[in-house]
Amino acid sequence: MRRSYLETKIWINQIALMVIGVIIAGAFTLGAFKTGQWAWLIAPPMDLVGIALVIIGARRRRETLGSRGMALQVVGALCIVLSIWAAFMLGNAFQS
């Protein structure tokens, strides 16, 4: 089965989001334990939820030939990106 250029780009972005989510989760976990910023531990669960949503959305998109699943992937991507914001905002709230 041959993929279109758009489907290939979407597939690459899905893989990239999962890798970025794992890297961010690991970095915030390691940083929390090294620096004592325990509020940073909010990021790894958000990243894991985001990764799960991207995977579920990708599977749904594949099963329905692209008609469903993109919204789940977008929500998953937002969870991954906003985990950075949540970790720093919660850290600032605890320090104040």
Notable traits:
single chain; 96 residues
Describe this structure in words.
The protein has 96 residues and is mostly helical. Helices cover 81% and strands 0% of the residues. The chain contains three helices and no strands. The chain has helices at 5-35, 43-63, 70-95. α1 (5-35) packs antiparallel against α2 and α1 packs parallel to α3. The model has no long low-confidence stretch (mean pLDDT 91).
The amount of beta strand, in percent, is under 5%
Radius of gyration: 16 Å
> Could you estimate the helical fraction of the residues in percent?
over 70%
SSE series: HHH
**Weakly predicted, low-confidence segments:** none
Mean pLDDT: 91
Number of strands: 0
Global outline = elongated
**Helix count from the secondary structure assignment:** 3
Tell me the distance between the termini: 56 Å
Structural class: mainly alpha
Main β-sheet description: none
Summarize the structure.
The protein is elongated and about 55 Å long.
